[in-house]
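Hi Y.,

Following your request, here is the sequence exactly as I used it, all 178 residues.
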Amino acid sequence: MDQLKKFINKNREAFEEEKLPAGHFERFEKKLPEKSAGKNLRIVLYTLIVAASVALLFFFNFQYQQSFDRNHSEQAVCEQYNQFQDVKMYYHIQMGEILTEMEKLNESSPIPGGKKLLEESKEVITANMRFEEEILPSLPCSNEGLFAMSQHYRNSLESLNIMLKQMKYVSEKEYNQQ
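Below is the corresponding structure, written out as tokens. Let me know if you'd prefer a different format.
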């Protein structure tokens, strides 16, 4: 290694004066992979969308939890309280995932009516909040109350699923036409 270093130092002018063939840099740049600024931007946007959706999910969950806890602190806590909480949490997670998927789909490929479907899905979430504030406290603390609550959430979840399927259908249709 020392001999190579000595040779380079001794003949430094020869190395510095060597000219590259014409068009060398252009050929070299063609061999480089294309810049992926658009891909990086999409990754950042998707990350921001997911982060915002998770934040919304936690916010709605916190709001739901506060209203449910406030209503139950005024009433006697029933035997099925844990079951009520579990059912509520399960459906909140399911609805949050659907809402997140709809937001990602709308951001990645905006479709006609996509914003309206997203607004309507948020209206379903708002209706669930009203249900929890106004109707849930009046439900009997029994299996019948638990059943009524499950039915309400199941219907809301099914509505969101229908809207998501519609967004996917229109998005695929738009993609196939292009």
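The chain has a mean pLDDT of 76.

Thanks again,
Q.
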